[in-house]
Amino acid sequence: MNEYTYYLIEKKAPIAWVYLNRPDKKNAMNPPAWEEASAVFESLGNDPDIRAIIVAGKGAGFCAGIDLMSMVGEIPELMDPAQKGGVKWQLLQKIYSLQETITCIERCRKPVIAAVHGQCIGAGLDMITACDIRLGSKDAVFSLREAAVGFVADVGVLQRLPLIVGQGITRELAYTAKNMTADRAKQVLLLNEVFEDPAALMTGAEKMAMEIAGCSPLAVQASKEVLNHGIARSVDDGLKYVASMSTNIIPSDDLFEAVAAFTEKRKPRFTGK
C-alpha cells in the first residue's frame, strides 16, 4: 500500500521508481509534494535492496510546477501586503523547508535518474537539476517559469542549472521564462539522451538504472559523495542567499497581479512594483 499522497513508489529491486502522482493536476506540486519528499528519498537511500532510483511523472507530463493556489494557503506570508520583520523571518524558514524538498534528492545516497516526458516546468525543473542524470522523450518541454509569475526561483535551480548548462543558458531561461525543447535541452547538456516517445524513455531509463545497479554499489555511492562534495559549498551558499533575496522581494504588486491573472485566465500585466 502506498504511504504517500503525492508520490507513488514502486520497488523492483534493484531499482525503485518514484512517480509524481497527481496526473489530474499535471503533477503540480501541492503541499504533500513538498512535505513527503525527504521521507521518500531517505527511505530509498537507506534501502539495501535499491541501487538506483528513477523519478518520473504519471499522466501527460512530468510536472507543471508549483501549485501556487494550494501553496498560498500553506504560506500566507506570500500574500501579506504589509510584511514586518517577524513575517519575513517566518517566510525565510518556509523557503528553507521548500529547498530541502529538492536538496534531499541530491543528498540521497543512491543515484537518481530523472525520466522526463511532457511538461517540466518551474519546480519540476528544480527537481530534475538535483537528480544525477536526466533523460527525456521528444515531447519534453522545459521552462524556468518563475519570472513570469513574480518570483525569483528560490529552491535550487539557479544554483544547480549553471553547473549543468552554464551561465548563459541559465540566464536566458531565468530572464525569459521561455520553453526549451528536448532536442535543445540535449544540445545544452540538460538531457543526457532523448528518446522517441515516453514508452521508449521509460525503457531507456530502466536500462541505465540496471547498468548502474550492475556496478559496485559502494563505488557508485562513493562517487556520488565525491561529486556532491565538489559542488556542495557553492550550492549551499547560493541557496541561503536566494532564500534571503526571495524573502526580500515577496510580496509585490507583480505577485498579486500574477495570482489575479491566473484566476481570471488572462496574461499578467507586470509593473515591476
UniProtKB/TrEMBL annotation:
InterPro entries in the record: ClpP/crotonase-like_dom_sf, Ech1-like, Enoyl-CoA_hyd/isom_CS, Enoyl-CoA_hydra/iso, Enoyl-CoA_hydra_C
Enzyme class: lyase
Keywords associated with the record: Fatty acid metabolism, Isomerase, Lipid metabolism, Lyase
A GO MF term: isomerase activity
Keyword Lipid metabolism included in the entry's annotation: yes
Enzyme Commission number(s) of this protein: 4.2.1.55
CDD domains: crotonase-like
PANTHER family xref list: ENOYL-COA HYDRATASE (PTHR43149)
Family: Belongs to the enoyl-CoA hydratase/isomerase family.
Name of protein: 3-hydroxybutyryl-CoA dehydratase Crt
Organism the protein comes from: Desulfotignum phosphitoxidans DSM 13687
Name of the gene: crt2
